Amino acid sequence: MDMYLFEDHLRNGQTARFGDTVARAIYVTGGSISVGDKTYAYNDGLVVTGAVTVTAGDEGASLWRWDLSDAAPVDAPAHNALKLSGPGPEHLEVAGNFMRLDSVTFPPSGTAMLHTHQGPGIRCLREGSIRIDTEGHSTAFGPGGAWFEAGP
């Protein structure tokens, strides 16, 4: 089971079908999308399982899409890019586990002290800059930068 982070760009009114997966989270970074009769605008997100079809609004849409799957999706829009992928732990294959979207804000020059998470995940920076110091390595990221955190 692997975790993937994609960046998708849809033209105005374009429909994209994202294939079957164990779990998927979609975050709208620009424009809007419709899924069924619900609309998701900039800074909105949704978590779904299985296949999903999205339609971009009149202004198009930019998305970050996290997939937990046993194979890289093949039926994605023409304008997508794989930002990051990595192995997911075996316990995520069991029903009842979760995927979530959340947001953390730091003041300028703020610091996140040593901490743990409930589980692994691919993190992505929305704005500003961040330096991640872990296991003796230091890496800086700007907007759209992505990194993997192992969890506990």
Please give the alpha-carbon distance between the first and last residues: 18 Å
Large-scale geometry: globular
Helix content: under 10%
The main sheet comes to: 7 strands, antiparallel
Structural class determined from secondary elements = mainly beta
SS elements, strand count: 11
Radius of gyration using CA atoms only: 16 Å
Mean pLDDT: 85
> What amount of the residues lies in strands?
over 45%
- Could you give the order of the helices and strands? EEEEEEEEEEE
Quickly count the helices: 0
- Poorly predicted spans: none
Overview of this protein structure:
- Helix content is 0%, strand content 51%.
- The protein is built from no helices and 11 strands.
- Strands 1, 2, 3, 4, 5, 6 and 7 form a 7-stranded antiparallel sheet that branches.
- A hairpin with a 2-residue loop joins strand 9 (130-134) and strand 10.
- The relative contact order is 0.25.
Short description:
This protein has 152 residues and is mainly β. The chain is 0% helix and 51% strand. The strands form three sheets. Strands 1, 2, 3, 4, 5, 6 and 7 form a seven-stranded antiparallel β-sheet that branches.
Which helices and strands appear, and what pairs or packs with what?
Blueprint: E1 2-10, E2 15-18, E3 23-35, E4 38-41, E5 45-48, E6 52-69, E7 80-87, E8 121-124, E9 130-134, E10 137-141, E11 146-149
Antiparallel strand pairs: 1-6, 1-7, 2-6, 3-4, 3-5, 3-6, 8-11, 9-10
